[in-house]
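dumping this here so i dont lose it
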């Protein structure tokens, strides 16, 4: 497993395990315990996922030293604002049974996200968080944001996969020193992702699946990935991307697959923004 150095010097694994949509707490705990047993050392959760307690229980039960596990959570919209965000992160610390977090992100660019970030900056300076950042910030909003905060975001976690490679966004993130992290690296199977002919054909050369090729492509583009699965066999397959390297020719073929558009909800769609803001914890 390769680590990448964030803009404040903190090392973060380039591949982690995501727990989005694993709402059943027992299943979430089992999934994280399986992931840790297989070798994952980065776990990505969020307040709105409702499974922080399960993640914390799994980490504790693993017996793995806390300093060897990279824990990420995210502050939800209904916890926005300096006071509420600060209190919510303290609750996340309790839920996760830890006295510090490795990374905390603003989950969505709505409500008082400047106040939220001030709370994260305070927690960062208090050494309760090792790195802070944002999620789902489009390039224009990101640039405006980074111009008005004290601590440059270490991460911007956005939808990124072979069909939406975020090439334009990555240029702006690189300019200001923020690392991109991919959510939805498999596009949730849309667009016949797992049977895509280009990915499948490339995979045959290396004895790898389309999914493994897609993850390896992102890794070689210096994009952090957090694939999710509740099946140990698939978890192991997702982790088995560190024993091969795609050729320049194969990388170019995959680069040409980019459609430069979201495969999910548009964060600039007023109806979707309304829906997100109505989701309370």
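and the seq i came up w/
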């Amino acid at each position: 497993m390769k680590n990448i150095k964030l803009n404040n010097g903190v090392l973060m694994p380039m591949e982690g395990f995501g727990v989005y949509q694993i709402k059943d707490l027992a299943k979430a705990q089992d999934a994280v315990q399986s992931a840790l047993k297989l070798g994952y050392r980065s776990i990505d959760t969020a307040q709105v996922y409702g499974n922080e307690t399960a993640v914390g229980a799994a980490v504790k039960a693993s017996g793995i030293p806390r300093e060897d596990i990279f824990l990420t959570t995210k502050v939800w919209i209904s916890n926005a604002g300096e006071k509420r965000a600060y209190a919510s992160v303290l609750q996340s610390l309790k839920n996760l049974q830890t006295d510090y977090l490795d990374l905390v992100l603003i989950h969505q660019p709505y409500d008082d996200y400047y106040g939220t970030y001030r709370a994260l900056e305070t927690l960062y300076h208090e050494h309760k968080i090792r790195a802070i950042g944002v999620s789902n910030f489009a390039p224009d909003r990101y640039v405006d944001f980074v111009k008005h905060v004290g601590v440059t975001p270490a991460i911007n976690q956005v939808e990124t996969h072979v069909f939406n490679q975020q090439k334009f966004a990555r240029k702006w993130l690189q300019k200001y020193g923020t690392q991109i992290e991919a959510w939805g690296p498999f596009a949730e199977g849309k667009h016949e992702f797992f049977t895509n002919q280009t990915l499948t054909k490339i995979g045959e050369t290396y004895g790898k699946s389309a999914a493994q090729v897609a993850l390896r492509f992102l890794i070689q583009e210096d994009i952090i990935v957090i694939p999710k699965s509740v099946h140990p066999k698939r978890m192991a397959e997702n982790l088995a991307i560190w024993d091969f390297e795609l050729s320049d020719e194969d990388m170019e073929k995959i680069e040409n697959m980019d459609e430069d558009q979201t495969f999910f909800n548009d964060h600039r769609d007023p109806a979707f923004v309304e829906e997100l803001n109505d989701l309370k914890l």
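The chain has eleven helices and ten strands.
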